[in-house]
Write a structure and sequence with these properties.
Elements lengths: L4 H12 L4 H29 L9
């Protein structure tokens, strides 16, 4: 029985790659690259939304 959620996730990932550790690592790296690219898009959108859009009246 696996009690640690991380260990359970690792077991599930490796199992989904038919026990191939190299394949599991490659899949995780690809997912990480995708998430990093998505995060950069969110950062860019947030920076664009926070840019001043004109003068504020006091």
């Amino acid at each position: 029985m696996i009690s640690d959620p991380c260990d359970a996730a690792i077991e599930q990932i490796v199992a989904s790659c038919n026990g191939d550790l190299r394949g599991a690592l490659k899949a995780l790296l690809l997912v990480n690259e995708h998430l990093e690219a998505e995060l950069q898009q969110f950062y860019a959108a947030a920076a664009q939304d926070s840019a001043p859009r004109g003068r504020f009246l006091h």
